[in-house]
Amino acid sequence: MSNIVRDSDVVELNAPPWFAYGDKVRARRTVRNDGTYAGKEIGDILVRKGEEGFVVSIGTFLQQFYIYGVEFLDSGNRVGMKRKELDAADGDEDQDIPLPCSRLPEPRAPAGGA
Questions:
Q1: Residues 44, 58: contact at Cβ < 8 Å?
Q2: Which one of 57, 67, 76, 81 has the lowest number of neighbouring Cβ atoms within 10 Å?
């Protein structure tokens, strides 16, 4: 029994979040309402295994875990998920795609023509 790894031993907040805003992710398992999702009955399916969505918020839980708010495309639900419940959907979560506004302007040639 001493080989059991519990979530309480893991402190994700010692490192930066695994996913970033806008990352496309995939649910690793089916998630049902445990009573904390307003407007749905307890036991209703919120997200199906394999459903894809985008990270729209990043929060914390119990000063221990990152919680990723994911807007799922098929169900239309926004659900808070832990890292262990998600996979990167594009296959390369380390890919850094620059935003249009993050490009640096081209350097100007000195006046007087050199």
A1: no
A2: 76
CA distance 7 to 84: 10
pLDDT band at 98 (very low <50, low <70, confident <90, very high): very low
107 lies in a domain? no
CA distances from 13 to 17, 38, 67, 83 (A): 8, 28, 11, 12
Mean pLDDT of 76-97: 76
What is the span of the domain harbouring residue 51? 8-91
Residue 20 falls inside a structural domain = yes
Number of domains into which the chain is organized: 1
Query: What digits encode the pLDDT tens for the residues 32-80?
Result: 988 888 888 899 999 999 999 999 999 888 888 889 999 998 888 899 9
Which CATH number do you get for residue 52? 2.30.30
On whether residue 99 sits in a domain, the answer given is no
